[in-house]
Specification:
This protein is an alpha/beta fold. Helix content is 39%, strand content 22%. The chain contains 7 helices and 10 strands. It has helices at residues 4-14, 47-64, 77-89, 130-141, 158-166, 177-186, 194-203; strands at residues 18-20, 26-27, 33-34, 36-38, 70-74, 93-96, 109-110, 118-126, 145-154, 171-176. A 6-stranded mixed β-sheet has the order 7-6-5-8-9-10, sandwiched between helices. A two-stranded antiparallel sheet has the order 1-4. A two-stranded antiparallel sheet has the order 2-3. Strand 5, helix 3 (77-89) and strand 6 (93-96) form a beta-alpha-beta unit. Helix 1 packs across helix 6, helix 2 (47-64) crosses helix 3 (77-89) and helix 6 (177-186) runs antiparallel to helix 7. It is globular. The protein starts with a helix and ends in a 10-residue tail after the last helix.
């Protein structure tokens, strides 16, 4: 039986939720040139992949956070995944807005959350870690005990790893950049020699020397 990391890597590549284009880099909003484009929302419109993802997230939660009482999705990408995974686990679910509403009760946390409840955050993608750490901080300020994060995919960038460690946030992902890159080469999506270039990007996204390799 294949390891879950590789099964999810194959799934993401098949539906182009992770798409490598090292010879024609994408440009991120920050201006950084990237050989990869990631859109895990595509998993929601591919039922077989979606089932692998949600069952995988449920398994990660059971194995890594057995004390979890509530799942909280990140806005907006993590909401659907948190809802489906919570349904599989028969658990309460809510989500955290990027900012408080300017009307009604001005909630930033949607769904019932009691102080002291043990929460797992559900995220689709972790790169530098900034957005998910903000969600964790909002939940902590509301009195929740955040056990950690589960995510579909992580880049494993040093900046992200350091930020998560500094904020004392544990993350467990279904798959990661290294596994997806290796799988992409094995499955013929990219050339084997491209893997080294992808790793150079992952190690230092601001250094564009990988483009000319």
């Amino acid at each position: 039986m294949e390891a879950m990391e590789k099964v999810i890597a194959k799934d993401l590549l098949k539906i182009q939720a992770v798409f490598f284009r090292p010879d024609e880099p994408f440009t991120w909003a920050s201006g950084i040139k990237s050989p990869v484009y990631t859109d895990n929302r595509l998993t929601l419109t591919a039922p077989e992949v979606r089932l692998d993802v949600e069952q995988g997230l449920a398994r990660l939660i059971q194995e890594n956070y057995p004390e979890a009482q509530v799942l909280m999705g990140t806005s907006t990408a993590g909401i659907a995944h948190a809802a489906i995974t919570a349904h599989l686990l028969n658990m309460p679910m809510g989500y955290v807005r990027s900012g408080a509403k300017d009307h009604g009760r001005q909630n930033q946390i949607e769904g019932r959350l009691e102080p002291g409840q043990k929460v797992v955050v559900v995220e689709d993608l972790i790169s530098t870690g900034g957005s998910v750490i903000e969600v964790v901080e909002v939940l902590r300020e509301a009195g929740a005990e955040v056990l950690g994060v589960v995510s579909i995919f992580t880049y494993g960038m040093q900046k992200g790893l350091e930020r998560l460690a500094a904020a004392q946030v544990k993350n467990v992902s279904l798959t990661n950049f290294d596994v997806v890159a290796q799988t992409a080469a094995q499955e013929g999506y990219i050339r084997p020699e491209d893997v080294e270039r992808l790793m150079a990007f992952r190690n230092n996204p601001s250094d564009e020397s990988w483009i000319s390799k």
